[in-house]
Structure formats: C-alpha cells, structure tokens
Design goal:
With 178 residues, the protein is α+β, with helices and mostly antiparallel strands. The chain has a single domain, classed as 3-Layer(aba) Sandwich (Aminopeptidase). It has helices spanning 3-10, 12-28, 39-53, 58-65, 67-70, 117-131, 146-154, and strands at residues 29-33, 77-83, 86-95, 100-108, 136-141, 158-160, 172-177.
Amino acid sequence: MHPSLIQLAQGHYLGRFKNYVKMKPLDEIQILDFDPAYREQFKKLNLAWIEKYFNVEEPDIRALSNPESYIIANGGRVFFARYQGRIVGTCALLKENDEVYELAKMAVSPEVQGKQIGKKLCVHLLEAARQMGAKRVYLESNTALTPALELYRKVGFYQVESTPSPYQRANVKMQIDL
C-alpha cells in the first residue's frame, strides 16, 4: 500500500490537513499597533459585544472614547487585527504596574469569528507584555462569554479569585504568568 494511503487510513494526513486549513487564516491576519485612524473601529467593535450582552458602563466610555489618554498614555498598548484588508478585531493591554498588565477590550467581528483572529491577537498581546517586562497578565470577563473564556484558557490563562472590579458585569477573573 502507498505510504500516503497508509497515513490517510491512520488519520495522519487528515489531521495535518485539518491543522493546515485551520491555521491558513492566521497567515492572512496582520496585527497592527494603534493608529488614530483605527480609533472608531476600536470603539465600534467593542460596543457591539458590550451592547449585545451587557450595558455600557462608565469605564467603557472612558476607554473607548479616548484610548490614547486612557490606555496608551498610561503605558498600555492597543492592537488591531486586519483580515482581508479590513480591521476586524482589537484588544488592549493596560498597564497596572511594571510587572502586571490587564488584557481588556478584546473584540472580533462576528462574521470572522472562528478564524483564529482572537487567538492571534491574544498571543501577540502576551508577547508584547513579555517584551514590556510583564510578569503577569490578568483579565476580567463574564461567564456568559463562553467562547472568549475558552480562548483565554487555550492560550494559558487560568481562573483566579475575583477582586473588586470597576465593571458590574465582571464575574470571572483569569490570569497568566509570563
């Protein structure tokens, strides 16, 4: 029997093919640093998920209205995912102190969810945090956001005891040690 047929019968080829198809979109995704031209997409992408599941809160308004002063001027970063020429995702890295940062405002357009865009954003953010000297990155979320929580677990976040949050919707806290 031909080796390719043996691999196919054993599932090796099929597994590799599935992985190739799954990872293919990652090659087409560009992660970009903040640019004022993308400010409106940062706000729009985040308001879409917040308004779908929760109420917009005061800290949301501050961060989304002026990411330059709320996030970047305080030592944080904002990233964007461009896929097929469009900004389709975003996330922010907020500096708490020299060793602790927060992953916040993660959003991916519903029409491209499932294409590994959130994963690529998250991995990029964690690498940026490492380069900035972070020892830990945490996030606050909600149990209603099951796909997001699953993504965070897949990249290495684990659940920790919640602490007081400025967000009423936050009922889950996760962190990753870098």
